[in-house]
Design a protein that fits this description.
By secondary structure, the chain is mainly α. It has helices spanning about 1-35, 40-60, 70-75, 80-85, 85-100, 105-110.
Length: about 110
Amino acid sequence: DRFKSTLIIFIGRFITGLSVGLDTTIVPMYIRSVSPIEIAGFSGASVSLFIGLGVLASFIMGFGVPPPSSDEFYTTDWWRIMFALPIIPAIIKLFMFLVIFKDDTASDLYN
């Protein structure tokens, strides 16, 4: 049972890491390609700024989790909440991808 839950955590972290890795490379390139030349640099830099703010927020949230060596770690649900929070931006991204931006590809904007 413990192996299964550990495996699920590793799989989830791998998928999340893959998503974040793709976001940090593809999103700035796409924003740079569709931005007007006057604000292209600012647009690309703002993506990096918000990624850094997201990392800062995750570190701040991590302060609420007790260390694994304490008994409180296994009785609190904060670490579960921390693992579940990435679901919120994932659902927002999926909604935006499927509903709002379905026709806003770079080739559609070019034509």
